[in-house]
Design goal:
This protein is α+β, with helices and mostly antiparallel strands. The protein has 24 helices and 27 strands. The strands form eight sheets. Strands 1, 2, 6, 7, 10 and 11 form a six-stranded antiparallel beta sheet that branches. Strands 12, 13, 14, 15, 16 and 17 form a six-stranded antiparallel beta sheet that branches. Strands 3, 4, 5, 8 and 9 form a five-stranded antiparallel beta sheet that branches.
Length: about 675
């Protein structure tokens, strides 16, 4: 603990200190009247006491008490204790939040607060929270404070809910008794509300029902409920059922944690489409071909809901939620699964060579007529769902590059959980183990080409003609990047024109997360292919130099993309109109760290480098601001929104709903049509 360095300054807490915020779930006080005494065993402290007594100096201990519950910890003020007797504590109540208590799991880090709040109802129903640990420390001035006693107290939410309760417990080592007052600050209305939602789902929104269901299944018996509800006609393999249901439960809780109160039932159903598809695919794998997968899934879900309602104190609901279950199944049926995807050519016809191949060969075979593009990590091909006739793009990655593929799967699964209109929608991430192992990422098919194509096409014999929607595209790119950073806590790390694609209606969307990383801070070490993540002309200097970096590295890349789009760029060795870039080698990337200087020269002296100038002074200033060498001098998302160049766009708020973003895009299109 090492408290002694500041012991004197912390010795007295103000009596009558205010109680913790009502947001705390539990608070604890060590009360006046606790009886503490010196240890009964003869140890160094007792010998010191005798020596001081012989010298005529009365011996007193200076103690403080720590209280731990789950991951949370707090401590009292320091008090003087005679050889034995009552101790006068005046400390403020020690608060413990919901995350401290409910999400405690030894060896694991904290979960998101939304997941913690989901667990509250489960905690109430299970009647348990982690035990309280009380430790008494003696203050030492020279060395580390000494732990002299310990006590533990199991706590039940049943006895604490809405009340305060005092407990007197014995300390170890004969150090006396501690009196503890526990106050559990939880509204007991949560439980009746939960029962009401599960018993009468039609009276509540689908979001509230999903939240109630997740709250209950977060309890210790959540997996048991899912297993008990399995239809008798469904024989699930024991070795697979637990891990699969755990995966379903994690998916449910992840989706629920991202729900907002104002989402419509339709929007909520769309969120749960991947889970519906996964459940139906799992049941189909465990049954014979003639089985009615939809009926078995419906029976399982009805059984699960009924058991949850019973746990919450409600009735067994024989015909509950049929309307919701049927819609849930429909969403899953519309969702693309690998077994229903076939490669197609540019006209939408199934490729004959693939169609005539044996079933086991088809999984490993991507016909050239369906190929959309190839890169370092895989091949992207055009596919169609035979049921819906909807087109998709599928990225097939060979798992020989396992670390890279594993990271992309992790990032894309993160994106899948919380889609955004300005990010390519992810529909599934499948690991195929038959034949040669590979990963297949199913994505939205964007038929409008990519941003690099748009820039190239805007060059004519008369120079570069800025596309009418160019500034709107940059706004859309920013919104997608902001969502990645602020909502998903993810770095893109390879933002460039080729990784911005366009939907049929001309909307710009971020794609390709092969270089992505969950987490907004990196140590700077090259962990992928022993080279900096990103593309040479667009990568930030700090990334090249292997310095620690954060989301400002993506902001730099965004600034380079803005210059490329606004001016048309310079022609590179591959024929694309791109950003200026110094020469480099695979053994030495250092020159790339000077690209920001080269870009600055092109911005300030365009005629000297035979490039087109930015359309306005505000645009030039914006590019220079985003591409500063020092990341600390680059703006964050809020400041980018306020810069003159971007503020003119009237961007939707960072927490805007999808419908609001769609409306902003339509308004921009209408405004452009008028001009």
């Amino acid at each position: 603990m090492g408290h002694s360095a500041s012991a004197d300054s912390a010795e007295c807490a103000a009596p009558g200190a205010t109680a913790p915020s009502p947001s705390s779930l539990l608070w604890v006080r060590i009360l006046t009247g606790s009886k503490l005494q010196t240890p009964t065993s003869l140890n160094g402290d007792s010998i010191l006491k005798v020596c001081r007594w012989l010298l005529g100096h009365p011996h007193t201990w200076r103690l403080y008490v720590t209280v731990s519950v789950g991951r949370g910890q707090g401590q009292t003020e320091i008090v003087h204790v005679p050889t034995h007797g009552d101790v006068n504590f005046n400390h403020a109540p020690i608060p413990f939040t919901l995350e401290d208590i409910v999400t405690y799991d030894p060896g694991l880090g904290p979960r998101a607060s939304s997941l913690a709040s989901m667990s509250l109802a489960s905690t109430l129903l299970d009647r348990r929270i982690p035990e309280m640990t009380i430790k008494v420390y003696r203050v030492r001035r020279i060395c580390q404070d000494a732990l002299v006693s310990v006590a533990r107290l199991p706590i039940s939410t049943t006895e604490l809910a809405g009340t305060s309760r005092e407990h007197t417990i014995s300390l170890a080592n004969g150090c006396g008794m501690i009196t503890v007052r526990c106050s559990f600050n939880c509204s007991v209305n949560d439980l009746p509300n939960l029962q009401s939602v599960l018993a009468y789902p039609r009276r509540h929104s689908l979001a509230k029902f999903a939240q109630a269901l997740a709250q209950l299944l977060q309890g210790e018996d959540g997996l048991e409920i899912l297993q008990r509800a399995v239809p008798k006609a469904l024989h699930l393999p024991t070795e697979k059922v637990t891990s699969t249901m755990q995966s379903f439960l994690v998916s449910l809780c992840n989706q629920v944690s991202m729900l907002s109160d104002d989402e419509s039932d339709r929007e909520v159903m769309q969120r749960f489409a991947p889970l519906s598809r996964s459940i139906q695919d799992f049941i189909a794998e465990c049954t014979h071909n003639s089985a009615n997968v939809a009926a078995l899934t419906e029976e399982w879900l009805c059984g699960t809901f009924s058991l949850c309602a019973q746990k919450a104190g409600g009735q067994k609901l024989a015909s509950m939620n049929n309307y919701m279950i049927k819609e849930f199944l429909k969403q899953g049926e519309r969702y693309p699964g690998m077994d229903h995807l076939v490669p197609i050519d540019s006209r939408g016809d199934t490729v004959a060579d693939w169609l005539n191949s044996p079933p086991m060969v088809r999984r490993d075979f991507v016909p050239r007529e369906a190929v959309l593009g190839k890169g370092m990590f895989g091949t992207v091909w055009r596919a169609m769902d035979l049921r819906s006739r909807q087109w998709y793009a599928v990225k097939r990655s060979n798992t020989s590059r396992q670390p890279t593929i594993a990271r992309e799967r992790e990032v894309t699964n993160h994106v899948l959980m919380n889609p955004h209109p300005c990010i390519v929608q992810i529909f599934g991430n499948h690991y195929i183990e038959t034949g040669s192992c590979f990963s297949s990422l199913v994505m939205e098919f964007c038929a409008g080409g990519d941003l690099q194509d748009k820039v190239n096409e805007a060059h004519t014999d008369h120079g570069y003609r800025l596309p009418d929607q160019a500034v709107t595209w940059l706004g859309q790119i920013f919104l997608g990047l902001e969502h990645l950073h602020m909502v998903l806590g993810t770095l893109q790390r390879d933002l460039k024109p080729r990784n911005v694609v366009f939907s049929d209606d001309g909307r710009a969307k971020l794609t390709d997360f092969g270089m992505g990383r969950i987490g907004l801070v990196s140590t700077g070490a090259f962990t992928l292919q022993n080279c900096p993540p990103g593309s040479p002309a667009y990568v930030a200097p700090e990334v090249v130099l292997q310095k620690p970096y954060d989301f400002k590295a993506d902001i730099y890349s965004f600034g380079v993309v803005c210059w490329n789009v606004l001016t048309g760029g310079v022609r590179d060795s591959g024929g694309d109109w791109s950003a200026p870039c110094y020469a480099f080698s695979s053994q030495n990337f250092a020159n790339l760290a000077n690209n920001h200087r080269l870009l600055e020269k092109h911005v300030k002296h365009p005629s000297r480098y035979n490039v087109q100038s930015a359309p306005s002074e505000a645009a030039s200033d914006f590019v220079l601001l985003l591409t500063k060498l020092d990341p600390e001098q680059r703006p964050d998302h809020g400041k980018i929104r306020s810069v003159r160049f971007m503020s003119s766009l009237g961007l939707p708020a960072p927490d805007a709903r999808r419908s609001q973003i769609d409306e902003w895009i339509r308004n921009r299109e209408r405004a452009k049509d008028k001009t």
